[in-house]
Amino acid sequence: MPFSLAPACRRVLVGAGCFVFTTMSLPAMADLPPIDARVETLLSRMTTAEKIGQVNLVSRGDPIDGQLERVRKGEIGLMLNVVEPGEVRAYQAAARQSRLGIPLVMGLDAITVFRIAMPHPLALAATWNPGLVEAATRAVAQETAANGVNWTFAPMVDLSRDPRWGRVVEGAGEDPVLASAMAAARVRGYRAGGLATAVKHFVGYGAPEAGRDYNGAAIPASELHDRYLPPFRAALDAGSETVMAAFNTVNGVPVSADRRLLTDLLRGRLGFKGFVTSDYNAIGELINHGVAADLAEATRKALLAGIDVDMEGAAYERHLEAEIAGGRVPIATLDEAVRRVLRVKFGMGLFDRPQPQMPPQPAEAEVRALARDAARQSLVLLKNERETLPLTPATRRIAVIGAWAENDYDQSWWGPAGLTRPATETLLSALRSRLATGQSLEYARGFGDGCGYEQGDVAGAVETARRADVVVMIAAEDCDISGEGTSRAYLGLTGAQQGLLTALAAAGKPLVLVVATARPLALTATEPFTAATLIGWYGGTEGRTAIAEALVGEITPSGKLPMSFPRSVGQIPISYDGLPTSRPPGNDRYTSRYIDEATTPLYPFGHGLSYARFDYANLVIKGSEMSTQSGQIEIAVTVSNTSQRAADEVVQLYVRQKVASRSRPVRQLKAFEKVRLEAGARRTVTFKLNSSDLGYHDDEGRLVIEPGPFDVFAGGSSTASLSGGFGLTGPLVIAEPR
Ligand code: GLC
Questions:
Q1: 697 has which bridge partners?
Q2: Which end of the chain, N or C, is more open, meaning fewer C-beta atoms within 10 Å of its C-beta?
Q3: CATH level 2 (architecture), domain 35-73+82-347
Q4: Which residue did the predictor score with more confidence, 664 or 32?
């Protein structure tokens, strides 16, 4: 139901005409003209100042009275960081009191938490379970929407092969197929939970030179289309209403001023119809980039490139009127930006509800159950020698070392400030409550602080270790060293942690290392001392409990790495899908290798052990060839759980195009499926690939499907050895740009 223009007559603006409703009954939606007509009618009534207001996204500021007045004047069309329901109502009421009563979009970084924290996005990707990620994301959205927020700045879908970059925590890792599945799942989840989405950061933000946040990215067109665009395409196909542009330059041009990316590619090729918001003051930062002499020029360049909304840049509000009056920005350009914003607002139903929608909070128990399941399925067991894990009742004396074990927080709980944090368990309490009869647990902090920066009582910790049968050390890469602005040049354990680990090893007991981290680390220095290593990520509200469940064997880890864990920083950027080179890595000097480091990662993409054992056999390719123009090829593989324990396994399918006009990656993930197998059970998993799944993009960004021989690999990681082959036949196909 559109808004009332003049309360006295209760005229309601609908489409071209103006209907007068004397009762509160709302016309059925079917009776309303389509959104575009409503948008045009409204746009035709707006002043230039009101249009500029609609493309102005402002962050909540204390005291809010001043902002409420600006909203009433129509100077603000979108807000961010308003999270308290009473304030949301106040802002929306102020919007309704403005001359045209246009409701506000209320945005927030509701990524994996509003109240109950899910594991962070990279950990969610480690579940390889899009259905679970969708459900967990929906729960976060429901908790958020219940407070009146209706737009989230998520999902972040920036692919990255560089764990020096602190924001890998927010993404889904290095692979376009896994990242695309996660992007779509998260958009579906947010939208089902009541939030419009802003897929970000378009594009190439995850490829900053040297892994330094905000640094420039150099991305050839073929790689842009093969690697970085697919997750955006998946998010848009899943219905993302908005896009957030990236801070960085791509090939020397800031995205926020690059019409080729924001308009020609995003709108022309990908068909995006919603609105594009800048990132925080990214318009103003065009001056830092050196492509604008002042904010007026930055304003002009951003709008003309395709930035519809100015987030906290105060650029559009200060300079657009003059840029238009001076003939440097056509009013039609502003109109189109406003049209896109209004179209999203109508599409969100904001005009059809006089009050901000605040659906009921989801049941906490349900949200917690999802958080626990997501945390459980995200855990990645990197190594487990001599079946050190799980800690069975036969392990009578357990030593737990590391102050993070007392921690009731991890950085995934990066929730809206001021909200009451939900109850959670420390790892120590969760372990203690799971001891079997006759088992004992002794704890030593080992550090002076929660994150292992300050030296603690190492001698005491070593003595504790000597009295135990198995030692569990908790290493925390927590405490605000992940996320935006946290690029690192070193990726070993921080502070006193490596020293403590080495000291504990001297106790001569099997050592289990648990790492709370949000990025791949170079754990090479820990390898000689550990019998088992478990990646606990930042598991959220239920994360520490899930780690305890895994340590004692209540659950079996099933996570798989969404990003390679390097041996050393010198190997970065590193990923499983590199090119073969003219001299593939080998023992000979004159091959593509390091003289002081292996070329393989410490732990590869797709890797993750289980307490069960899975064998793969019978890779069957139905039909030995497929046409470049049509058809499908079916690839089946049988996976068997040869252990006595039921468990989940992620079956992964990789291909390699052996000969083509361009050098092709040595492996590429093309499909995956997470399956549950009871002890002794087996399952045949069948994947279907279309010819378009096997194409690549050329330097013009066109999809090329080229005939030739393909190898196929299937198994539980990117190093799967079970292989087969097929031929792609027929003519070279160059698909029209999509
Ligand atoms: C930040 C981030 C972006 C976030 C925005 C609003 O600088 O780059 O991801 O959504 O500001 O908080």
A1: 703
A2: C
A3: Alpha-Beta Barrel (3.20)
A4: 664
